[in-house]
Amino acid sequence: MAIAVKQSSRRPGGDAQITASLAEAGIPLAHTASVGAVVSGPAAKPHRMPLPEVADGEFTGTVPTPVAGLYRVLVRAEGSSLRGEPYTREELRTVAVWTRGDDRSIPRDGRA
After folding, report:
1. Is 105 contained in some domain?
2. Res 107: pLDDT
3. Which of 5, 40, 50, 56 is 20 to 30 A from 73, comparing alpha carbons?
């Protein structure tokens, strides 16, 4: 399982696109798995969200990031291999959001 995270913005109010890719020996595991995520944010209780399959072996979902803080995203896949053997995989990712998250300039007072 490979996980990719893309943030539209690192400022509050953006979102993070989570993509999970499942393959065995380079062959996508199409239509053989159930994938979801448990999202824990700074302002809400943990909640589960499904990641639907959008292409063979590729699952995706969007995590809103309304407030500054750290969001933990635990992605879990359950399915069967090409030989029909059951498997479970988990990976944890974090998404950081802060007030000046997209700023690239140095503050005027000279502090970094």
Report:
1. no
2. 61
3. 56
